[in-house]
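Lecture 7 notes: from sequence to structure.

We start with a single chain of 503 residues. Read the sequence below before looking at the structure.
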Amino acid sequence: MAAACVCACGITETHSKTVFVRNASAAITKECGCAWKEVVSRTNARIRLGQGTQGDSGRSAVLLQMSVWVPVQGRAVRRKLGHGFGPARTDCSRMMVFAWATVVGLMALGAVLVGVGGAQDLGTVDVHQLSAAQLNLFLTQIDDELHGFQSTAASLRETLATLQSELKATDKETEAMNGARAWEAAEKEKQLKEEQNMLKVAAEEQEKIAKGVLQIQELSREVAVMTEKYEQLQRRKQAASRKVYDPQILDMLDSAASSWGTGSQAVYNRTKELFDSGEVLRLYRKSMSRPVLVFLFSCMYGFVALCMYGIYLLFSRLRPTVAKLILVGDMSFAGFWLMVCTFFILLRHDPLHAMHSRAPRLFTVFQLTWLAAYVVHVLLRVSRLAARVSMFVFGELVSVIIVGNHYFVRVWQPYMMDNASHGSLRFYFCYLLLFTSFSLNSLQVLSPLKRQGSGNLGFVAWLKILYTRFTNQAVPYSDPVLTERATLDEDDAFGLFQNIRSD
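Now the structure, written as tokens:
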């Protein structure tokens, strides 16, 4: 809006300047032309009249009339410029009026000077007494004045041409301003149309959003209803699954209560109220399903079978030294507790407790198997301590004995007595860390150096070298300390396995 107002003001001012210039140019041209023609005609006539009839006195009269007429015409032009077109309020109008007033004033001043000179001549000299030379001098002066008027007229024509060129430039500027105004109006109209279209689009989008909100609310109500139905079906499914996989005496009594008498049914109904069906269902949810138990038992017993097969390969194909048997035992116990911790985290339930609650006999056999293996493992560590007495070997033996006693008191005995064990995951994790540290310590004797030559040793190459050193009977060592330790570990403790190895 501000730009439009500025543009309108500029166009109005330019238009007023154009009108004033046109009017001033026409008036000046008309007045100057008429005045000039009248001056020339009167001068010529009076000169001719003065020469033919009156002589010097006629020429003096001509000069007097010119001295009076020229200022009067100058004032007339000034009045027309000042009052015929209204007060000049703009800078352009003031400049033009001042210029033309100056020109006309100069013309009037020249005429007055000529007239004053002629009047002085007439007042001091008798015209009839002038000679022909003096009269010629007066005529020469008049001709000079006429030449001055002609030069003034030429300058006025040049000024008029300048004004006409300025008028054309002003017309072009006016046309440009009008074009800019028309373009701005068109752009404004276009912007208004775009805003109206955007308002329509926004109204349509709001209407669509309102419809979408209503649809979302309806769908939310439908989802809530369907969710409630789904929860009911889930509860019914869980109740049916519990009756199938974990039947209780209440289920059997419910099916048989219809054939009872009235008194028996009343007693049964009052007794049934004491049982919380929700609590029974929650206990069932905490229990494991049959496929999970089958998978758990398979992993546990499969790991036991794998450990026994490893010991068999050790006795049949390799030299069964005490160090190798202790290493196999540490790795077996570490793998077992790693598997137990993994199942505990995934199932969020103690796998040993699940095995004991679902299959107590198999759990007992499983525990006795590990007990026998653990006793043999402790005896091997005792024989190693007897062959090479050191504080490190003694510390390992004491740690193994303490761990076995702790497991018997805090884990196995509560399960055998049908008592729940709390914090068993923490115990399992400690057992895992202990046997993992024992295994890594035993592997340090057989493991190769991390760097050989100039390059790093990869993990696969490291495992290959470790396997080669474990399977070979004689392992070369470059370190004297490791060589002495390996010699003690490779030798049988008191020749314990010298007659067991089969070719």
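Residues 1-15, 46-94, 111-125, 474-503 have pLDDT under 50 and may be disordered. Keep this in mind for problem set 3.
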